[in-house]
Design brief:
seven-stranded mixed beta sheet, about 160 residues, Aminopeptidase, 4 helices
Amino acid sequence: MLQNTQPRSNKITLNDVDQHNYLDCIRLSLLPEQQENLASNAITIAQSKFEPHYRLKAICLNQKVIGMLAFCHEDEPEDFELFWLFRFMIDARHQNQGYGSRVLALLVEEVRALGGKHLRTMHKPANRQASRVYQAFGFREIGTLDDGDTLLTLEL
């Protein structure tokens, strides 16, 4: 019998974080030098229980969790045309393989479907990897937040 020798498709999907995958999201890790750039996934999941407008997504590669992102619409004042990507991480073992831009493209589709016209994000100034990923995707810097983070926007 012939075996299928074709490579796997490396399909990236965004799935709701739920009771079936939240532990996988918590177990993900960053490189040591990246850990100060981002709140932990456990904290993000806990925060989402008190912020009903937060949307958490498990980033899956061939149905295996390799990252997590969190986004929401602007809520002060409420604006369903402006969305914020406020957490985005890919496990250290899966970085630098082109998944970041694929994930951002899926997020943009989802935000557009929700009526979003603008997507904003931020990163610590020292986080050069995040800066490269966002700017290569088309985000542009528009300023600095009160906490010193670099603010970026993408018109959808």
